[in-house]
Amino acid sequence: MERPELPLPQLHAFVVLAEELHFGHAATRLGIAQPPLSQQIRRLEVKVGYALFSRQPGRIDLTPAGRELLPAARHALTDLAEGLAAARGVGSGRAGRLRIGFAASLALTVLPSLLRTFRERFPAVDLDIQEMTTTPQLAALRERTIDIGLLREPPAHDADLGFETVLAEPFVAVLPSSHPLAAQRTVRVEELADCPFVLLPRSVGPPLYDQITNLCIAAGFAPQVTQHAVEWQTICALVETGLGVSLAPESIRRIRLKGVAFRRIEPNTARTRVAVAWRKNGSNPLVPRLLTAVNQDPPDRP
Known about the structure:
Layout: H1 8-20, H2 23-30, H3 34-48, E1 53-56, E2 59-62, H4 64-92, E3 96-102, H5 110-121, E4 125-131, H6 134-142, E5 148-152, E6 161-169, E7 171-176, E8 186-188, E9 196-199, H7 206-218, E10 224-228, H8 232-240, E11 246-249, E12 260-266, E13 272-279, H9 286-296
Parallel strand pairs: 3-4, 3-5, 8-12, 9-10
Antiparallel strand pairs: 1-2, 5-13, 6-13, 7-11, 7-12
């Protein structure tokens, strides 16, 4: 179907006149004189090919053609007004869609408070939340399938991506409740030397994996990893069954499993960083809005 070329002033004048059925009243509403209003209506009638109003002395009325056009004209003007409002909202960073990737463990710390704060400030924004580990998040940011990432242990430098640390937390030992070391309030890392380990695969987060193994190496041993799992919930479940022990970010202790004990470690100097990540050349105006929310309401430690 060929698109009609109908100037918006003509369409607007038609709707107002159809509502008023009086040239003087309609001209007043439009803020113009009657002659320009009459000209707009005549031009529109030429476009349509039929009269839209019947004109009688002291009275005008819609013709059948005018009555048929009126609902479509109102709909077109309403759609345009809504479209303009939506475009302005997106352009101003107060509406639109924001795609966020997050590491599953951050649902225990950063994510809930951040999303709550952001939604309170920008309720018109549609949030698309996707769970993924650090390495897939970095790829998704570069491929522009997410706008923001919430991840652990970001790269030290990346030419395309920006990072801002929002939380630094220590590590804890994750033990079966029946393990002899679970009776202690603090576990020295070297006491885990003879234990099998359950860890994340290195591929899903190399920096975090290396941090954990380096804690062991600094204590004089290389961890004997016998089981891998992508999610911390699964790691804790495998520890509960007695398949091994683990070292995990402190927030993981919020995973409540009866058969799992979380204990502080010594030395207690290592910290794992949680960061927000974004594309430096991204164009979504909602990204700086979220970064502002992070800075104004930083997450609490677990």
